[in-house]
TrEMBL record:
Species the sequence originates in: Myxococcus stipitatus (strain DSM 14675 / JCM 12634 / Mx s8)
Keyword Transmembrane helix listed: yes
Keywords tagged on the record: Membrane, Transmembrane, Transmembrane helix
Transmembrane segments: 30-50, 102-127, 148-174, 180-197, 204-222, 242-260, 267-286, 325-341, 353-374, 415-432
Signal sequence residues: none
Protein name, UniProt field: Glycosyltransferase RgtA/B/C/D-like domain-containing protein
UniProt key word Membrane: yes
Positions of region (Disordered): 1-22
């Protein structure tokens, strides 16, 4: 990896600063715009739309804009679409799942809806535009017999935009450590070789917003090697990552310790940013639940399993043919090599240990869920949130790839490049299938429901991403 000095709490000396600028070509701004456009367009063109747990996030946003409240009382006649995701608090119906996705979608939806209202008078003179405007206004106002497909499509569009933005921050992170053209390799893995493509972009669930917040936080922490004050701003996004998904409490704890060790001068500012998020979140929860945490965030939802079941879950989240991280994203096998390289580098060892610890703790946590396979989903859904960290550990691997490309030893060069390309190609294939084929999604229920027959999770004769190719 192209190294930047880690001066602790002091800014780099002028000579060091010049060296950092020379060694870290972060690329032109148009390259970031290109990343966003290309990644988002590819995501938007994929036909599969997820039916996630957070179906009621968009209706919650609509309710806030329309009526100024976050309850779903006006949608009671439509609860049959997803009754399990609604809870009753003091006579008011609310979305049971985390409010983070709705919070993230509120701004874009408010702006878009305002724009629709502005152009509506003009749209009357343009039939095609008027049709789109009328469709939006009709579905925005409808509360009874809602059009579920409208919500699925809108979710997918928003999720794709958010993940396109996350790809930009991964590019920024990698460009801090690699020449920007080589950083594109890391960004490409993030965008097309992971569950970001096949899961986080298919609906407005918890994973996409979680990945976005962690990607921004990771970029700021890597940038802090060059601009230490960036560590303070990371507190805002680390805190928001918890609002998006409670398992990110692990990142909150470990990254806070990292900042306390590496950037003590900015630790209070970091905590201030995080407390701003926490105070707002806790105040909202108290106003709704009379508790600082909603039921979904309670630790009791994690139920430690017996030794045999836990061992199966631990193995399953890595190598199950239905949910294994290294089966669906074999490129992340190289992240293990990257972790090894980072731990050997004294200047990056603390960060490597912190990010690696988060990966291990997350793996242990999601493996403690009785439903460790994440119900009806595709690939390693529960590991999606860890994609930014896994991509961080690919940075030193890509740097080795860069050196291999100019190595005078042809065997080393060809072998390393070929291995990387092969693993990346297999990863693209599996997630392309998840984003474009209904057959792979239907695997969960055919021929038997995976939730009632979890032995299917280990059936190498019926692998989900091969559905529609090798088996009807």
């Amino acid at each position: 990896m192209l190294e930047a000095s880690l001066p602790g709490t002091r800014p780099p000396a002028p000579r060091q600063e010049r060296a950092l600028k020379q060694s870290s070509s972060r690329g032109p701004r148009w390259s970031l715009a290109l990343v966003f456009v290309v990644v988002t367009v590819v995501y938007e063109c994929c036909p599969i739309k997820g039916v996630g747990d957070l179906f009621w996030s968009l209706p919650t946003v609509f309710s806030v804009i329309r009526e100024g409240n976050a309850d779903l009382n006006e949608y009671q006649d439509a609860f049959h679409y997803y009754p399990g995701a609604v809870e009753v608090i003091d006579g008011k119906y609310r979305n049971f799942f985390p409010v983070g996705s709705a919070l993230l979608a509120l701004g874009p939806i408010w702006v878009f809806n305002g724009g629709v209202n502005l152009v509506a008078p003009v749209a009357e003179h343009f039939p095609k535009l008027n049709k789109g405007v009328s469709n939006w206004k009709k579905n925005f106002a409808r509360v009874g017999n809602i059009d579920a497909s409208f919500f699925f499509t809108t979710e997918m569009v928003l999720a794709s935009l958010f993940m396109g933005l996350a790809a930009v921050f991964i590019q920024l992170m990698a460009s801090e450590l690699l020449p920007w053209r080589w950083a594109l390799v890391v960004t490409g893995v993030f965008a097309f070789c992971s569950s970001v493509w096949s899961t986080a972009t298919r609906d407005l669930g918890q994973h996409g917003p979680s990945v976005l917040m962690l990607s921004i936080a990771l970029w700021l922490l890597v940038r802090a090697r060059r601009v230490p004050s960036s560590a303070a701003w990371a507190g805002l996004f680390v805190g928001l990552s918890y609002v998006m998904r409670p398992t990110n409490s692990l990142s909150v704890i470990v990254l806070s310790l990292l900042v306390a060790i590496r950037y003590r001068r900015f630790f209070l500012a970091y905590c201030g940013m995080g407390l701003l998020v926490a105070a707002t979140f806790f105040a909202y929860n108290w106003s709704v639940y009379s508790a600082i945490l909603p039921p979904y965030f309670q630790a009791g939802r994690i139920a430690p399993q017996s030794g045999a079941l836990m061992a199966e879950a631990l193995a399953g989240n890595l190598v199950s043919p239905a949910r294994g991280l290294f089966i669906y994203s074999p490129i992340f096998l190289l992240s293990l090599y990257g972790l090894f390289l980072e731990l050997r580098d004294k200047s990056h060892r603390v960060e490597a240990a912190a990010f690696g610890l988060i990966l291990v703790l997350h793996w242990l946590t999601v493996s403690s869920f009785p439903h460790w396979w994440a119900g009806h989903s595709y690939g390693p859904r529960y590991m999606t949130d860890m994609t930014p960290y896994l991509c961080y550990f690919l940075v030193p691997v890509v740097d080795r790839l860069r050196m291999a490309a100019s190595s005078p030893r042809p065997v080393w060069r060809r072998g390393f490049v070929l291995t990387f390309v092969l693993l990346a190609g297999l990863s693209v294939f599996t997630h392309l299938r998840g984003a474009t084929s209904s057959a792979v999604v239907n695997w969960n229920g055919l021929p038997l429901d995976v939730d009632t027959h979890p032995s299917r999770l280990w059936d190498f004769g019926d692998i989900a991403f091969l559905r529609g190719l090798s088996k009807p």
